[in-house]
Structures are given as C-alpha cells and as structure tokens.
Design a protein that fits this description.
This protein has 136 residues and is α+β, with helices and mostly antiparallel strands. Helix content is 22%, strand content 37%. It has a single domain, classed as 2,3-Dihydroxybiphenyl 1,2-Dioxygenase, domain 1 (Roll). Strands 2-3-4-1-5-8-7-6 form an eight-stranded mixed β-sheet. The structure holds carboxymethyldethia coenzyme *A (CMX).
Length: 136
C-alpha cells in the first residue's frame, strides 16, 4: 500500500484566524477554504503547497480529539495524512502488520475524502491518517 503522496499535514492551533494570518503573511500562501467538520469537532483551514496541503485545525469542543490534544500537549503537528488508493485494502494490510486501527472502516472527512486513522501507540507516536479521494 504505497502512498501516492502526503495529502496533508494537520496542525492543531488555538486561534485559527491568527494562524491563517501567519501562513498568508510569512509564506504568502492563500487560504483556499475554511470548513467546519462537526464529526471531528474541528474547524479547518486549508493551504496548498505543491501536492500537499497544510490543514490548520481549531477545536470546536474541548472534549474533541484536537481539543484534548491542545490541552495536553499545546499547539503543534497533530497528524500526517497519506493519500492511498483502495483505502479498505490499505486498512486490512495495516491491520495484518499489527497497526491498531482507530477506524476499522473509512468514514467521510474534510474535503469529502474517505479517511481512517491509525492509533499513535502503534505507529511510533505519530497519529497517521490514510485518505482516498473517491470523487475524482
Ligand atoms: N499524536 C500523537 N499522540 C497522540 C495524539 C496525536 N495527535 N493524540 C493523542 N495522542 C496520545 C496521547 O498523548 C496519549 O499518550 P499517553 O498515553 O502517552 O499520554 C495517547 O495518545 C492516548 O491519548 P488519550 O488522550 O488518552 O486519548 P484520546 O481520547 O485523546 O484519543 C486518539 C487519542 C488519537 C485515539 C484520538 O485523538 C482519535 O481518535 N483521533 C482520530 C481523529 C482525529 O484526530 N480527528 C481530528 C482531525 C480531523 C481532521 O483531519 O479533519
């Protein structure tokens, strides 16, 4: 299950607007979308850098995954997302190799992608997302 590229890097932030300003001013990148993802209890802002996106994540609920992360660890890199083909196959392959799946089956995430997470306890401490764009 070789990923095609890094789809995005998720960065947990406290203040979405302030972090958007940072990327717009320092890197002269354009925030092309802000999206509410109620299922994940976040509001996300997206930038494109080559084939890879930067997804800034502000929590909308202190009990959500990003809210808990920021409370415990502060702002910072929250997850890395790999673009894959045939995500269901990819999940079975990862499981066969001892990965603990947070999502046994893909669910819909931001940007209408099919997404699933691997637990950081089974991936050297990194929250890994695999995702597939089935809309193309
Ligand atoms: N990266 C690395 N480690 C992480 C982590 C992260 N993002 N989030 C939590 N952890 C670690 C914790 O520090 C903790 O480690 P210790 O036991 O050493 O303290 C361990 O994982 C368990 O953490 P927890 O706080 O007890 O468990 P949570 O209830 O916070 O759950 C996790 C952690 C990863 C299972 C949960 O955050 C999850 O299901 N994440 C997937 C969904 C998600 O993150 N969505 C937000 C992004 C959505 C988007 O991209 O749109």
């Amino acid at each position: 299950m070789k990923p095609t590229h890094i789809e995005h890097i998720g960065i947990a932030v406290r203040d979405l607007e302030a972090s958007i300003r940072f990327y717009e001013k320092v890197f002269e990148l354009k925030c092309y979308k802000i999206e509410d993802v109620p299922d994940q209890k976040v509001r996300s802002a997206f930038f494109l850098v080559g084939d890879t996106k930067i997804e800034l994540l502000e929590s909308t609920d202190p009990e959500g995954p990003v809210g808990k992360f920021v409370e415990k660890r502060g702002e910072g890199i929250h997850h890395i997302a790999f673009a894959v083909k045939e995500i269901e196959k990819c999940l079975r392959h990862a499981e066969d190799h001892g990965v603990v799946l947070i999502d046994k089956a893909p669910r819909k995430g931001a940007e209408k992608l099919d997404i699933a997470f691997f637990h950081p306890k089974s991936t050297s401490g990194v929250l890994i997302e695999v995702c597939e764009d089935k809309n193309v």
